[in-house]
Please model this.
Amino acid sequence: MRETFEPILEVKNLYSYIPTRKGEITPVNNISFSIGKGENVALVGESGSGKSVTALSIMGLNAPSIKYSKDSMINYKGENLLKMKKRQLKKIRGNEISMIFQDPMSSLNPLHPIGKQIAESIQIHQGVSYKTAKKTVINLLSKVGIPDPESRLLDYPHQLSGGMRQRIMIAIALACNPSLLIADEPTTALDVTIQAQILNVMRQLQKETNISILMITHDLGVVAEMADRVLVMYCGEIVEEGDVYSLFQNPQHPYTKGLLESVPKLRGVSEKYLHTIPGAVPNPLELPAGCNFYTRCSSATEKCLHHPPKLTKIGTKSQAACWNMVEQQTEEVTVHA
Model:
């Protein structure tokens, strides 16, 4: 039975677009979801599916070229982050909502020691001196598994390994005890052993602080390890949502099935080649009138081409946007009636 989480963030009708000479590009197309207190939600999909744009929308860090519809809402503690003034948003960003970015080497300032970089957000949001913040910094370094933390305060990013730099990014994100942590591909470019260590650090910190986590990833191994609930994105839309167990055991959308089948199997497999999803992601300026997955789906029908499917509930744990799934459910109800 799925655990119930009290919502801390609610995204409603989020629609972002980029005006171009050839028409509008919609990185995120009218999506809605919530994140509960202490919940770990994974947002998965191929590159270009809209995952990072969604995360940066929450943080208020998207480029000015990205616009939002009037109906778009990202509600945090009853206030729409998209309508906030920059000064208000700065008080929340890094303090109540923090983010771990993809590349720790480019995200850290090479000209400043790590101690100073971690202390910066504490000094800004709590109005204390570096001397006062230093104790918190040492404690954070210890929590994220940095050995002999006090002696590391004056180290520069280039003196640390990739795994160490990622731990520093986690420490910076957690410096002000945020309520929500957004982790954008937190284990990218790390070897398997270091990945496991980083995930273990995040799991332990979540257990200690009851922080909510939105994890952006395309790694389904990370999803299985960390998530309570999964949102699957394709072409800017959420095509399936469900608790992690249900989604892995019984995926409903053809795209979700394709992603899961693409994961290499270690046992009982005699296939010579890895499974791939046929075709390519459609041009964002030439999306079909119906389902965006139409050109890559082996089960597509004429209805799929002309009519976009809506998220439909499957039992009490999942929902998916697929006409075949809807018709299958209708047939089952008819048979049992």
Observations:
- The CA atoms of residues 114 and 156 lie 6 Å apart.
